[in-house]
Write a structure and sequence with these properties.
This protein has about 200 residues and is of the alpha+beta class. The protein has 4 helices and 5 strands. Helix content is about 35%, strand content about 20%.
Length: about 200
Amino acid sequence: MPDNALKLPALLSLFAITLICVLVLFTVESMTTERIKENRLSASRRIFNDIIPAGYTNDIYNDGLSVVDRYYFGTQKPVSINRIRINEEMIGVLIYPVTADGYKSEIELAIGINRDGTISGTRVLHENETSGLGDQVHQDKSDWIDVFFGKSLSSYTRNQWRVISDGGDFDEISGATITSRSVINAVKSALDYHELSNDIIYSEK
């Protein structure tokens, strides 16, 4: 029997084993990626609960719109604007991710805004700022991010929406002026969008 005839079954077996290994690796990678996404979403939703008014009655994650607007939200990625309702009445929105340009990295925020334009809460979803300095923007590291609670565009003049060292009214994180300035600008910009697009955001169409 020719050598080629003897080699063919072995080659076919090797090919089959290789194909099975590739399929197994692909399946495991897909499952791992999906699990990571689910874990991130679950973690984000736990954070959202800190800034969403209690007692809402709708499925907020399936009630809203997706917007791409780099000018107001600092990113080309779609931004979710989820409506918050109590007994069908829209009482506010959850906006995420709003992106601020930090000192070392982009900082992704979730911002809750009541229908009257006041902030129900602000939380950091992702940051990679300098340890011990800019990372204090995160709610797990300090309470600085809570400074926005209850604030609205009418709380300050345009020039007051700045850190104190820039002539504004907001304390800055010690040693992290750039981070502080960027987050303040991002929060104000989200409030600007909420005010200018109120009719769209709260439309039932």
